[in-house]
Amino acid sequence: MPASTLNADLHCHSIFSDGVLTPSQLAERAKKYGVDVWALTDHDEISGIATARAAALDCDLRFIPGVEISVTWASKTIHIVGLNVDETNVTLIDGLAKTRSGRERRAQDMSDDLAKRAGISGAYQGALKYVGNPDLISRSHFARHLVEIGACTSVSDAFKHYLSDGKPGFVPHRWATLSEAVSWIKGAGGLAVIAHPGRYDLTPIAFDSLFQEFRSYGGMAIETITGSHSPDQYDEYAKVANYYGFFASRGSDFHSPDDDGIDIGLLPALPASSKPIWGHWFDT
């Protein structure tokens, strides 16, 4: 089987960040839905990789250790996926710990803002039920709480009305820099990928600056086929990848079976013109 036809899902989340399934459950689900190559990419966290690797081995599933790093660029939050990283790399471990710091204070501020501007009280404790560890609390945990209490109909609805820029409950946070994130990934032997570029509210000039800067630091790929893109964006970002000389990555960005996104392994294939990033590791 040529690399371009592998069913690769290189973006999903477990209970170690803001997903609801364990790494073992994710591996089993990936195998069930026909995934050939699977990566666990928890937000700013690599603690689940060892379990994921063992579970993938049990499922006879090819595994890529990964991470998704939160970055502040041009006052926007951008996500950079690192693939095939060494999770024992000290610089990566320390960098992620630094990036995670401040999440609890931000979450408290989000809760206060929801109470003040939207009349929704107790959101911090409600969100904390979904994560347990305040160091890993994120907007997704708040979104699940808002759905649970009936304030929103879905996770995406919660982001749209409460948790995006300018809405009640949105509090900006200073994450890692783009150069830091790419450096940590490269230093850990991995390849850096811009996650779901279609999600970012950037002008064409800003996008060009992002792609050029990312490439100058040694960034290698962008996600083109992803659960966070609409179908009309698949070809758009495949062309972007080719224009800038990037490899193409593919991932569901799966968090929960109950979310309104695409399930693991059920994305369409990359366009024939794309250069799949997993070709670095698998030919057949």
Secondary-structure topology with pairs:
Layout: E1 8-9, H1 23-32, E2 37-40, H2 49-58, E3 62-73, E4 76-83, H3 90-100, H4 103-118, H5 123-128, H6 139-148, H7 155-163, H8 178-187, E5 191-194, H9 204-216, E6 221-226, H10 231-244, E7 247-251
Parallel strand pairs: 1-2, 2-3, 5-6, 6-7
Antiparallel strand pairs: 3-4, 4-5
Helix pairs in contact: 1-2, 6-7
How would you describe what is shown here?
There is one protein chain. The chain is of the alpha/beta class. It folds into two domains: 3-101 and 174-280, TIM Barrel (Alpha-Beta Barrel); 103-163, Orthogonal Bundle (DNA polymerase, domain 1), CATH 1.10.150. It is built from ten helices and seven strands. The protein has helices at residues 23-32, 49-58, 90-100, 103-118, 123-128, 139-148, 155-163, 178-187, 204-216, 231-244; strands spanning 8-9, 37-40, 62-73, 76-83, 191-194, 221-226, 247-251. The chain has a seven-stranded mixed sheet. A hairpin with a 2-residue loop joins strand 3 (62-73) and strand 4 (76-83). Helix 1 packs parallel to helix 2 (49-58) and helix 6 crosses helix 7 (155-163). The termini are close together. 48% of the residues are buried.
